[in-house]
Amino acid sequence: MKRSFMSRLRVGFPALLGLLSVDSVALAQGTHEHTTTRTMAAPASKQFEIRFLEGMIDHHAMAVHMSQLLHTEAVHPELRVLGDSIAAGQSAEIQQMQGWLKEWYGRTHEPARMMAGMGMLEKMKGESFEKEYLRMMIRHHASAVRSGRECERRAKHAELHTLCHHITESQKREIAIMKDWLCRWYQKCK
Fold it and tell me: For the whole model, what pTM was predicted?
């Protein structure tokens, strides 16, 4: 039985549209899957990545500054060791993120100098400093964990996605350590 041209068109047209859609998606994905880090991201992704990188550079710089204060003010040596680890790790991540901003988007960004809430911490000494440092750093890390999770969902560059996952996991671990110390050392258990 021969089909009419119209019936063949009715059957074939949706299939053709489906193939075109699949081919368009495959082309788009193929382009994305095989991109190098230098390929331009979509405008929304680009804006998100720039905003995230600049914000996290500032955020990390504050943690580095706070942690450097531990050398003169901390009572517990293990807190100084954690602070050194935070400062070293986040300084390296700042450099990495600055490099990506330059490489991917042709932008430079230096950490913000104005650090909200730092004046009060800088005036404290000994145990009161440690308690406030731990409280502030727990909140600070929790903010980075939230940002890192969003970045894991939205980052287009694989390298950035990996960094965001690392930020999320490492800062969750550090939050647990700091909460434990705040509870054991200062009976501030929440």
Answer: 0.76
